[in-house]
Amino acid sequence: MATRKPPPSRQAVESPPAPTPRRPGPQGGVRDTNRRERVNALADAALELFLERGLDGVTIDDITQAAGVAKGTFYRYFEDKAALVDFLLEPVRRELLQGLVACGEALEAARDVEAMFEAYRAVAAIIAGAIVQHPGVVRLYLQECRGPAVGARVKLVEVARLISRHAVDITRKAHTHGLLRPIRPAVSGLAVVGAVERLLLAVLSEEEDIGNPLELPNALTTLILDGLRLPHSGPPPARRKLDGKPGRP
């Protein structure tokens, strides 16, 4: 009987890496250096325009003019505007999804509240790091991720859906050991994602002064988990199903 090959990992299927722009010449050579400079010029110009006008308000002509290169140069490195957005998004997507996977694995092993807090703190720290290292890309994601999944916005919406799926999954794992209140994971998980994304957009848009972004991990973790975790004292709450309706005794 033939041995069945294991299916590809979910991570590999869901989040393929962004294609790397074609590299002329040996790495580190003159042509490679020129390529990097042009790619960075296109990426920087595009990001600034996207943040100012939105994805739909920017054309490839706008990008090449702002970058100071010919339109043909754009197509030497990117197939279209969606490919450029994918290239911008890649480092943030990779770091964030790896952090969410690691959090889920840590929650599977967590047996007490402190271990649960540490798992969530690790994800919050990754979010804070992304804000510091890639503030423009994070802001672009937050501005565009709830729009229709068409054109250049497709990859951003895909990441939003992956984040939501992972958030529900890790919430379900936290429920496994009875560490959270019996609220349906899809409700609490998506509520947390929505609250965190709205807070981050306010921070990056400078709508509110929240102080040092590096202090966000502990603040977010405490705010969220103090509301979701089971209380330590007093009589246990009435047993309820995860859809919020009363369960059987």
Please, could you describe this protein's structure?
This protein is an all-alpha fold and 249 residues long. The chain is 64% helix and 0% strand. The protein has ten helices and no strands. It has helices spanning 10-14, 30-53, 60-67, 71-77, 81-109, 113-133, 135-144, 154-176, 185-204, 216-228. Helix 2 packs across helix 3. It is elongated and about 60 Å long. The relative contact order is 0.10. The model is unreliable at 1-17 and 236-249 (pLDDT under 50). It holds the Pfam family TetR_N. Keywords: DNA-binding. Residues 1-34 are annotated as: Disordered.
In short:
This protein is an all-alpha fold. Helices cover 64% and strands 0% of the residues. It is elongated.
